[in-house]
Amino acid sequence: MAAQDKAEIIQKVRETLDKYESRLSDINQRVGNVFRSLRRAVNIYLCQIWSTPELAFEEQNAHDSICEFFDSLPADGYRVHRSAYGITTALEISYSQGHGGRIVAFNAEYDALPGIGHACGHNLIATSSIAAFIAACEAMRALYSDNTGYTVRLLGTPAEEGGGGKLHLINAGAYKNVTACLMVHPFPVLSGAPSLLSSSSCSGQYLANDKILVTFTGKPAHASAAPWEGINALDAVVAAYVNISLLRQRLLPTQKIHGVVLKGGDRPNVIPGTTTLEYYIRSDTVKTLKPLTEKVLKCFEAAATATGCTVEHEWEPAYMDMKTNQSICDGYVTAMNSMGYSTIFDAAGQEGGLSGGSTDMGNVSYEVPGFHGGFYIPTNGVNHTPEFTAGAGSQEGFKRSLYCAAGMAVVACQVRDKQAQEAAKCPTGEKCRGWHPLQRGEDLHFPRLEAQPRDGAPLNPESNTYTTVIGGWKLSALLSSREGNVCLAQNTKHTIIIGESYLCFPSMESTAEQRRVSVLLVLLLQSCRRHTFTMTEKDLKVDPEPTARDLDLGEVLAVQATPEEERRVLWKLDCL
Questions:
Q1: For the chain, N or C: smaller number of CB within 10 Å?
Q2: CA-closest candidate to residue 415, choices 77, 128, 6
Q3: Which ranges of the sequence are coiled-coil (predicted)?
Q4: What is the pLDDT of residues 524-562, one digit of tens each?
Q5: How far apart, in Å, are the Cα atoms of 400 and each of 4, 27, 198, 342, 414?
């Protein structure tokens, strides 16, 4: 089947959202008789999430409300899984057509904050993902009648606020084989761009985050009668706080350290014997976070040494930085602007445009191609304030979450549409005997490596390509072709076509051989980034600086990689 025109996809998504908006809107608005009872019920479900805030891993009402909503829909083929993946308040709603194919997932968060309810707007995240899921399913049903299989999934992800719910889901296999995972998050309207509805960013917006609980143990004593008999654990807290404050003077703008005293003592006339601190340590990437965390640990150890206390620490779930997928970003921004919604690629240049926060969606983005967009709602306060709670419960906030749902649904249709295109032909027009999709293929961004060929080969203006030779393979990066950005890898035996999300093997019959060459090509592409790789018996290791030793291609071709091993290798290399 030919690819659907983007305008046709947008129209079908809009029709679906218009159809369901009456079920999701305020109960006082007019609605047709056909949907009146459903609309009333769904309004209650969504209002319950905002009006009955629940903390991490306690979101039973939200879990039940969403599942009941899908149970109430006509028989549309949705499969409802309560307490999914062994997590009590996680859920999964799925819809499949055909067999196999790509899987698009939408994350729905719904946990709240202690004392101030939905001050981070996770109720709107749930709303937008539910709407995007339904719109994508209905649009695909209406537009695609071929046999290309696909699956659309709604994942209810509890405990983003510190509990690392998505880490549990990752470990349980919830994201295995997912092609793309999308969600959007609300923020206050940007003062520098009041008309902006939404934005996306490929880097820098969500930081890697280590969370640590620190306990100092001293010796209690009477604070007035015999203070010399005690070892003051509160002194250790004060010393640690001062040490870290001094360290903060030398932090990069992308690094943050902040903490609170959870326990400072019991009575003024008792030398505190035990005190507790909790700190968050953030940096722009996991790589730059590690040395910063080590410095903070030394601050705690120095405080313990200086005061005579002992120190123990406990790690909470660590969040990785967000590696947003470029192709999904581009598709989302284009779709939103096509529908008339003011959306830009990166809000970093706008006043208040950088989040500075962290999310467990970052961990997901290290597993599968991910997208974590932002959208802006009218509110008198920033996230994590009572004022933002009010904005998250407003009708305008609700409407804006639906606008973003439309953009995500269009991207989901395009992911499925692209799959059909790639299955039908290869970019050079040759008949493909087989193709092997990369788990994180679109994140490799080979066309964006053109400025860093290993041998410094210049652009060929006639063919608009960069070429370089590595270990007997000639790599040609075609920067802009009718079929998009394409790379050809050629040696005396094979020609392999590398698209943004696939590999094509016109000359190879064997699936096993294709798997091995998948590993090879990732190594070749990463070599263009000035990395040299060496092989061990069980793994691949990278030397960050190039050496005289070139890649031993015969050694790589001998690797008998299983699909799971290949997925892990691709993930490891792509995250360097």
A1: C
A2: 6
A3: 3-30
A4: 554 443 333 333 333 333 333 333 233 333 333 333 334
A5: 26, 18, 9, 11, 22
